[in-house]
Model the fold of this input.
Amino acid sequence: MAKLEILEIPDPRLRTVAKPVEAFDDGLLQLIEDMTETMYEAQGIGLAATQVNVHKRLLVLDVSEAQDQPRVYINPEILETEGRETCEEGCLSVPGIYAEVSRAEKITVKAQNADGSFFEEELDGMHAVCLQHEMDHLVGKLFVDYLSPLKRRMVTKKLEKQRKVSGQKPAKALL
Ligand code: ZN
Done:
């Protein structure tokens, strides 16, 4: 199956705001399948459509240990949040960079399944972190945007240096 290309910063297409999914058709099912496969191949635990240059509001994730529980969230909306938690994050679109980001500890999310039906879930832990990270992608936001200007400059420098060294493989969880 088609493995999709993952956009990397500073690609301006990562800044696109996605539009709601309206057609729950075969094309959508194929996209979900391709995105899930691409996520696993890249050793990620989450992938937003924006990252593969499809500007629709959907994301896939799998935060299970065995990587055998793929999930899809279509037109996700956060209804409620609780607490704050800081977690080290990485991103398939920002290779090799990890940084602490503060997000809501618990969230209640409403979204649609592949068949268009609605569901609501309460999430915490890595599942909540991952969902918030992926939902940011859908509005053109990256986790490095949360860093201070000084830290962001350091990240940019590191990325430039890294590009010269090919074949680096990420070791940690990527969203
Ligand atoms: Zn990401």
